[in-house]
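note to self: dont lose this again. the chain is below, predicted strucutre after it. 265 aa total, dont forget to put it in the shared folder this time
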Amino acid sequence: MSVEPTTIRDALRRLREAARGGAEDAEVDPEVRLAVYDSPLATPRVISLTGGDLKALIDDLATTTYTHSQARGGRIPFVVIREIVENLIHAYFHNAVISILDDGNTIRIADQGPGIRDKERALLPGFTTASAEMRRYIRGVGSGLPVAREQLAFLGGTLTLEDNLDGGTVVTLSLARPAAPPGPPAGRRPGPAELTSRQKKILLLIGELGAAGPTSIAKELDISHSTAYRELVALESLGLVQHRGSGKRTLTENGIAQLGAIFTS
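---
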């Protein structure tokens, strides 16, 4: 079913008013925060997402979460992330926080919505509490949680449902870390061969320009904006570039060293 463009705030207000039988609704918060943990002890990098409309927000949340998870080395499939992100509509995205941990192999989606009373039934195919208004934006056929759990189980992972501290739900997606590949022989340090040809070109371009963002990189290398953004996120996760505002990245000390290795290889 097509959905007329509307603001996220208006869409969420309409959803909650429909659930309450048309009663006057409280203020809604359309902002969702994405917390990326580069290490267990580090303060997370926080990204705030609002989107242009509700469907755009769902798409942006799923894509951004998947991109950052993959950049950290995570293996949780996009379809699993998408199913759980869609489920946030049941909580009206209230105080929603998505955390990426364990090198991308653990994703925790928390909200402070009405919560899930019967968690066992919620994991059964066909069980849904999606209203007619919610089905304007999602399928709402009760397949999200069961499909996500089965796909993770097939990969050796788990999906857990818990109550949030002050109400709401916490969904945790987990996969075991893949076995570490053999390291380089003693006395040798990893070289530029660990980067793709495109990533090397991006490092060279940033070194030449001093700072560059997805738009300039996409133009110079004749690639899509999304591909340029994804590669920058990957290089940032490797500690080779750092964010300097306005979407631009500069080389870190490790990035400069890697650039030198590229020149001498």
